[in-house]
DNA sequence: ATCGGTACCTGCACGC
DNA sequence: TGCGTGCAGGTACCGA
């Protein structure tokens, strides 16, 4: 489900747990746990305070008092909810002195991991798209030989861009999703860098996109989906030239684009 | 070393 | 009503 703007919105909405002590941690579905015995993990968390909660791309990392990191990834349908009753898809329950935090995920593509060291898979990610300089972005772009849409989804290139914002950024930059990275000239790359920053910034301000069921920890939907110019708008007129938006499959993912505005 | 294809799982909309 | 199909914001792993 969530990409960078949605995860950022979730992290902001769970701010109340910062500084709070975990009274109990309960894991109901072991499928979503990575690396570690659930009882040991629960014991390791119990009685510890959350020192800080940070976002790295689409990953959420909570720093635990006394050492250790609790990593949470929401996958496609994961949710973190403050309060409320556990349901059919509640896989983890963190009880605090004041309130409870539930991890729900119907498709179970999300995961939770506890590690003593900073999680390796997070350390391996590329730079934050909102922080990377154009020079670094352009230098990394030319090192890859693939289709631009695939590269944007590659989290070692930049971290946090997913299917929605890749399509939206490519539209704004006028680049076809199937375009070879080798054929993108410097000035076009600059447009893409700017488009990624613009679309992510606007989406964060809107609280993310709620395509089907995304909500933040308070149950609020985002509303950036009303600003989508190509994503899931197949057949509808382009906002710039009225040409019908097309859909193609790239790397097993659907890509939406304007055949007139976006060139290969 | 990089890349593309596939697997993982549930729910929903659709056509018959 | 039910069934089959295709689709959905994700990453990890495997083999070329």
Word description of this protein:
The chain is an alpha+beta fold. It starts with a helix and ends in a 7-residue tail after the last strand. It is elongated. It is built from 7 helices and 11 strands. The strands form 3 sheets. A 5-stranded mixed beta sheet has the order 2-9-5-4-3, covered by helices on one side. Strands 1-7-8-6 form a 4-stranded antiparallel beta sheet. The protein has 2 domains: 4-123, MutM-like, N-terminal (N-terminal domain of MutM-like DNA repair proteins); 134-257, Helicase, Ruva Protein, domain 3 (Orthogonal Bundle). Helix 4 (134-141) packs across helix 7. Strand 3 and strand 4 (59-64) form a beta hairpin. The model has no long low-confidence stretch (mean pLDDT 96). 25% of the residues lie in helices and 22% in strands. The chain has helices at 4-13, 38-45, 120-123, 134-141, 148-153, 163-173, 186-205; strands at residues 22-27, 33-34, 50-56, 59-64, 69-73, 78-82, 90-96, 100-105, 111-115, 246-250, 253-257. The protein binds a DNA duplex (16 and 16 nucleotides) through helix 6.
List the helices and strands and how they pair.
Layout: H1 4-13, E1 22-27, E2 33-34, H2 38-45, E3 50-56, E4 59-64, E5 69-73, E6 78-82, E7 90-96, E8 100-105, E9 111-115, H3 120-123, H4 134-141, H5 148-153, H6 163-173, H7 186-205, E10 246-250, E11 253-257
Parallel strand pairs: 2-9
Antiparallel strand pairs: 1-7, 3-4, 4-5, 5-9, 6-8, 7-8, 10-11
The structure holds a DNA duplex (16 and 16 nucleotides).
- Spatial sequence of strands, sheet with the most strands: 2-9-5-4-3
Biggest pleated sheet: 5 strands, mixed
Fraction in beta strands: 15-25%
The CATH topology of the largest domain turns out to be: Helicase, Ruva Protein, domain 3
């Amino acid at each position: 489900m969530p990409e960078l703007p949605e995860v950022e919105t979730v992290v902001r909405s769970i701010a109340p747990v910062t500084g709070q002590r975990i009274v109990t941690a309960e894991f109901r579905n072991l499928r979503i746990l990575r690396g570690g015995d659930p009882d040991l993990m629960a014991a390791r968390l119990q009685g510890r305070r959350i020192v800080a909660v940070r976002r790295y791309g689409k990953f959420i990392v909570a720093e635990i008092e006394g050492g250790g990191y609790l990593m949470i990834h929401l996958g496609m349908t994961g949710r973190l909810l403050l309060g409320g009753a556990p349901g059919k898809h509640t896989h983890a329950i963190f009880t605090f002195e004041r309130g409870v935090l539930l991890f729900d995920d119907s498709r179970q593509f999300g995961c939770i991991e506890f590690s003593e060291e900073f999680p390796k898979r997070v350390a391996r990610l590329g730079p934050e798209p909102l922080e990377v300089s154009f020079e670094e972005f352009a230098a990394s772009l030319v090192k890859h030989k693939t289709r631009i849409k695939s590269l944007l989804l590659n989290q070692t290139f930049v971290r946090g861009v997913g299917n929605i914002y890749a399509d939206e950024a490519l539209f704004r930059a006028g680049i076809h999703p199937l375009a070879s990275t080798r054929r993108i000239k410097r000035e076009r790359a600059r447009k893409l860098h700017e488009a990624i920053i613009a679309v992510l910034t606007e989406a964060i301000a809107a609280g993310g996109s709620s395509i089907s069921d995304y909500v933040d920890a308070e149950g609020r939907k985002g509303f950036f989906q009303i600003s989508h110019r190509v994503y899931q708008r197949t057949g509808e007129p382009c906002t710039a030239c009225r040409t019908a938006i097309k859909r193609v499959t790239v790397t097993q993912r659907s890509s939406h684009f304007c055949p007139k505005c976006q060139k290969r």
